[in-house]
Amino acid sequence: MNKFDQANPTVATVKLLIDGAFVESTTNDWRPVVNPATQAVLARVPFATHAEVDAAVAAAAEAFKTWRKTPIGTRARIFLKYQQLIREHMGELAALLTAEQGKTLPDAEGDVFRGLEVVEHAAAIGNLQLGELANNVANGVDTYTLLQPLGVCAGITPFNFPAMIPLWMFPMAIATGNTFVLKPSEQDPMVTMRLVELALEAGIPKGVLNVVHGGEDVVNALCDHPTIKAISFVGSTRVGTHVYQRATLAGKRAQCMMGAKNHAVVLPDANKEQTLNALAGAAFGAAGQRCMAASTAVLVGEASRWIPDLVAKARTLKVNAGTEAGTDVGPLISCAARDRVEALIAAGVEQGATLELDGRKPSVPGFDDGNFVGPTIFSGVQPGMRIYDEEIFGPVLVILAADSLDDAIALVNANPNGNGTAVFTQSGAAARRFQEDIDVGQVGINVPIPVPVPLFSFTGSRASKLGDLGPYGKQVIQFYTQTKTVTQRWFDDETLSAGVNTTIHLR
């Protein structure tokens, strides 16, 4: 046992899911799951052994033999039941998420709901997993395609959306006929495990969904395992790049959604109140711990005069524990995350940016040990400053100025990241030019966080994404299936045979 185990022998343990059973890990490496508002230890999570990872993969491989042949309607009905169960347990799931992750209860419900939308999409798999048919492509010859599952797939998910992002992954993979091994974030795995329990209750057979916990060793084991065919990842650029390179080197498909620096471009003709509300919500919601947070504002021309109004708007936001009514900004996930954000704020001051609003060390009565940083705003920010070049992942908004829309577009396109961007304007012509010329995968027009609904795919680009196909939507059907093309000819009468054909074409 490590020191944590010896000090906390009675703390509840997070289980592994292997072959339909929730099992206690035999590892000697355990980590605490900590409430970020109070520092209370909620549970301990195991870092699974290699043998446990192998067992989970083996269970998934065995289950694939029968699951891949399960009728598509049967698969769809499981997810119809699953979405019903998630709805019935929404309050419980949100409370569990808030306790271990820190976001406000309304935001936690939003986290679950956005994942629920993907589950609903998975229930429509009968309409999504359709092949193509061309009749009589040659004399009496038909060609058609089958979208068949790959086999065992795996997912690695981050701490900031412990409900939504697992639900991006395993429902679509399983609905298309694959089996799955999930590795949730070790920082907040409890709500994920409750969702997994509900998935089994909905009827997912044993071995079709498995869960292992851990850190780098478990990630590497999933990347290297010869039985796993595809890996989906959401998280930091550093880890995502590692996962993509290691997984693809091992011959796997990989999709990695990674870091960002999302710009909100504000033109002077934008609706002022609507824009200020959107910026404050998108920059400081979830304590800035969103890969789609609008962490960077580019104020064009006269819009730069709005900075005092934006500061005033941010001052109205309430910093408190996510369980408290009226809270707008909860704690960061860990003490280390808080220290990193505070260090970046200090770096912004040192490098010459103007600190318009300092959110460090806010007073939160009753939660003195929480990992809190309040809304923080910098103006006068330039490329080359750490607060611009790095993803802060905290409630910090950095403001840059641009003389024109063209200058703003050039600034955004010069940034290596391409997850999301937005423009605020009442000009249709300006909005159209922005959407055409901007080199970013997801664009909002008067929408600060342009994450698409599941009818479409998440389409981050450039340094924010590795892999051609995004999670959920139509693209993920291609990611989780292999296209098989069948060319067939049937003869009514042997006299139709034209004899030996030594050419490549059909006749």
From TrEMBL:
User: NCBIfam families per the record?
Assistant: MMSDH
Q: Which domain of life is it from?
A: Bacteria
Q: Give every Aldehyde dehydrogenase domain span.
A: 22-486
Q: Among its keywords, does the record have NAD? A: yes
Tell me which InterPro entries the record gives: Ald_DH/histidinol_DH, Ald_DH_C, Ald_DH_CS_CYS, Ald_DH_N, Aldehyde_DH_dom, MeMal-semiAld_DH
Q: What is its EC number?
A: 1.2.1.27
Q: What class of enzyme is it?
A: oxidoreductase
Keywords, A to Z, come to: NAD, Oxidoreductase
Q: Which PANTHER family match?
A: MALONATE-SEMIALDEHYDE DEHYDROGENASE, METHYLMALONATE-SEMIALDEHYDE DEHYDROGENASE [ACYLATING], MITOCHONDRIAL
What molecular function terms (GO) are annotated for this protein?
methylmalonate-semialdehyde dehydrogenase (acylating, NAD) activity
- Check the record and name the Gene3D superfamilies matching this protein: Aldehyde Dehydrogenase, Chain A, domain 1 (3.40.605.10), Aldehyde Dehydrogenase, Chain A, domain 2 (3.40.309.10)
Family the UniProt entry places it in: Belongs to the aldehyde dehydrogenase family.
One Gene Ontology term of the biological-process aspect is:
thymine catabolic process
One Pfam family it belongs to: Aldedh
Q: Which PROSITE patterns match?
A: ALDEHYDE_DEHYDR_CYS
Q: What is this protein called?
A: methylmalonate-semialdehyde dehydrogenase (CoA acylating)
